[in-house]
Amino acid sequence: ATIEAAELGTWDWNVQTGEAILNSRWFEIIGYTPEELAPVSIQTWVDSAHPDDFKESMAIAEKLFNGELPYYEQECRMKHKNGSWVWVLDRGSLMSRTADGKPLRVLGTHIDINDRKQAEQALRSSERKFRSITEQIAEMVFLTDSSGTLTYVSPSAEKIYGNLPHEMVGHSFTEFLAEDEIAKAVDLFRETLSLQLSTRTVELTFRKNNGSFFVGEVHFQFYVDNETSGGIGIIHDITERKNQEILQHQYEVQLKESQQFLACIYEDVDYSITVVDIRPDGGFRLKGINPIHEQITGLHNEDVKGKTPEELLDPHVAAIIINNYERCVREGIAIHFEECVPFFGKKPCWETTLNPVRDEAGNIYRIISTSTNITERKKANEQLKKMSAAVEQSPAVVVITDSHGTIEYVNPRFTDLTGYTIEETQGKNPQILQSGMTPKSVYDELWKTILSGSIWRGEWQNKKKNGDLFWESVVISAILNSQGVITNFVAVKEDITEQKKIFEELIEAKEKAEESDRVKSAFLANISHEIRTPMNGILGFSELLKEPHLSGEETAEFIELIQKSGHRMLNLINDLIDISRIDAEETKVEISETPLNDLMYDIYAFFKPNALSKGLHLTYTPGLADSESLIITDSGKLTQILTNIINNALKFTIKGGVDFGYRRKENILEFYVIDSGIGIPVEMQDKVFDRFHQVDNSLTRGYEGAGLGLSISNAFVKLLGGTFHVESIDAAGTTFSFTLPYNPVLNPVHSEHAAELSTQCSALSSPALCILIVEDDEMSTLLLKKNFKGENFCLHYAENGWEALELIRHHPEVNLVLMDIKMPVMNGFEATKLIKQLRPDLPVIAQSAFTSQEDMEKAREAGCDDFITKPINKHELLEKIQALLIW
């Protein structure tokens, strides 16, 4: 009875025989009577089981039989008599086994759960439909519990908020609101839930995940689901709609403003406006005119409304106006034109624009005409054209700027003169022409003048586009408007470059003439002095020689002085003869084979005593080996050139000394004389070769001479195919240099004299080693030169430590120094220390007749790399050099 009350279907299955005992409820659940399915066995169940559930049922039975499950419970489907499938809750348990442990008897029940399963399926279907809808729509759907916590959020939340749904579930809906909207939303929520209200609609501002905000329209209502309650809502992003509402409002405001603006234009503008309607038959009828049109024409708006042009105007005038209206309609666009038509006894000129107005269908139904009276402007334009033509064709430059000096106009003459095109100058400042040669004070005065309204006149030097300089005569004045305010400046300019050039040439010619007179006067004064001085010595001492009681010593002294004055007189006469020959172009070039190194040594030997007498050092440096130094040139003129320069260098050098020599530069020989004398001022350097100039032409100058030597030397250098150069720093010395062509004698034959005295440089392809011999004893120097004969050495000479130091400074090619210890001016120890400071790696071999250990130690302390005693053994010396140098 209990089983029947519970509506349980029971079954009892003998596993071994397959027999089954089923109660009537079991059959009733699937729509049968026991008789309809008799005989009953386990096969009865198998036949009614759903194929998909049967496999799972057999798997469960296997686990039950194996003892893995004490009982089982399974929801499965069975075939109903009407062909449908009904759901049952199948429960079973193994009740007994055979003696050998096999499953024997299984008891179980079937409960009809079909209604529940159908309800669950309906619920799931409903949920699927709900989710499908909420996941498809753009609006965000949400559920909350009674506390306002989100329990469901549709996927559209990601698009609206920027949050994934699961990031929002579990949070209060107020967390996603703008702060000032929270109180409003909470009150709405509480009121809706407490009063269980139906849908409420409200607009709220929400905060997105990125911090931005949007306006949402929220539809929210109360719901109850079984024992739970809460709220369900939809959020629709209406930000765009709100923006459109704002824009609509703005458009309405702008439209109103535009209407007011157009009304103001129509009423207050200073040009004529006529509104013309187009009749259905294509004719034209005036709709109205604005006040300015009334003032100009004398017509009144009320009188012209509804009238045609033919009714208001003379026929020929009306025909002109109608023709323009028809053209506007025909072309369908705004047309612009100028017209001069008779009107009430006058013939004014108008600038008119006709604008077609279209309806929604695109048909032109109205024309708006705007006209400006340009009669006076036409007259002004005619005058302006005449003035423009005059400016355009003017031979003078015309530039117009604004009040700030920005170029607005230049005429063609400006382009012709400066090279700048009109396009390159417009918008620029006239400063583009400034050369930097005009003082700032000129421009300051210019602006002060023209800003006061006055006219400025002046001259300045400007620069063309290509960099050429030119002079201009300039007149600049201001242009004022009717209120007296400066609006522009106009400059009228004339190119006066040629006039300036002519004027400057006249000034220069005048100055040259005056300078020539002055120089000639000074020259004559100098010549007079230079002639009278030696003549005074010759005549004076000749007179003294007549004295009867002169001693032999006095007689010899007077004769020597007479000879000295005679030589001075002879030199002056020779210089004057050379100048005369040069002017007459009678100077002859006598080309011969010239041993250049011998020539340099002879000059050195000639001037050496003079240098020593003044306490000056004198060094020379040949630039070629003897085998290369035999050249074709005029040896006499070359000697005279060098003699003149060196003589001047010694004359104007008080302390220090003179270094001379030459070097080869490809097919050119460059000769130089460097002194540490008084120098030549910059402004005098380009005049030192002028025959009538001396650095000091005053009567108080401290140096004798006529000032012809450099002029003669310069002329000789040009005759020999070279050029002269001078570099000098005032009070710090001078360098004279000149070039000659290098014309070597092929296969020269060396003289014994040249082999002994010239610089011995080998003609090997590799550079010779350069050795500096520092020795004050002439015999010792000659002995060293003999020892080095035939070696690949280039020799330099100095007679004391000071000369050696100077030579090292100017000749980086020196590879080794042979240093005597005991010398005048500066000894070898001091010189070596200073040389090592300049060039620490330069080897120095001390040479001395002193052989004590103390002297050798002092040499090492001074920086000497080796020591050799006199008399010097050639082989020992070469071994020491070889130890320090590889040649």
Describe this structure in words.
By secondary structure, this protein is an alpha+beta fold. Residues 697-703 and 749-767 have low confidence and may be disordered. The protein has seven domains: 2-119, 2-Layer Sandwich (Beta-Lactamase); 137-237, 2-Layer Sandwich (Beta-Lactamase), CATH 3.30.450.20; 270-377, PAS domain (Beta-Lactamase, 2-Layer Sandwich); 408-495, PAS domain (Beta-Lactamase); 507-587, Orthogonal Bundle (Helix Hairpins); 590-751, 2-Layer Sandwich (Heat Shock Protein 90), CATH 3.30.565; 769-884, 3-Layer(aba) Sandwich (Rossmann fold). It is built from 29 helices and 32 strands. Helix 20 packs across helix 23 (709-719), helix 21 (596-613) runs parallel beside helix 22 (635-651) and helix 22 (635-651) packs antiparallel against helix 23 (709-719). 42% of the residues lie in helices and 26% in strands. The strands form seven sheets. A five-stranded antiparallel sheet has the order 2-1-5-4-3. It has a five-stranded antiparallel sheet with strand order 7-6-10-9-8, with helices on both faces. The chain has a five-stranded antiparallel sheet with strand order 12-11-15-14-13, with helices on both faces. The protein is flat, with a radius of gyration of 63 Å.
The gist of it:
The chain is an alpha+beta fold and 887 residues long. It is 42% helix and 26% strand.
The order of strands across the largest sheet is 2-1-5-4-3
Distance from N terminus to C terminus (CA atoms, Å) equals 138 Å
Mean pLDDT: 84
What CATH architecture of the largest domain would you give?
2-Layer Sandwich
CATH homology superfamily of the largest domain: Histidine kinase-like ATPase, C-terminal domain
Please provide the count of β strands.
32
Question: CATH class of the largest domain, please?
Answer: Alpha Beta
- By secondary-structure content and strand pairing, the structural class works out as alpha+beta
CATH topology of the largest domain: Heat Shock Protein 90
The helix content is: 40-55%
Strand portion = 25-35%
Major sheet: 5 strands, antiparallel
What radius of gyration results from the CA coordinates? 63 Å
Overall 3D shape: flat
Count of spatially separate domains: 7
Task: Catalogue the unreliable spans.
Answer: 697-703, 749-767
Continuous helix count: 29
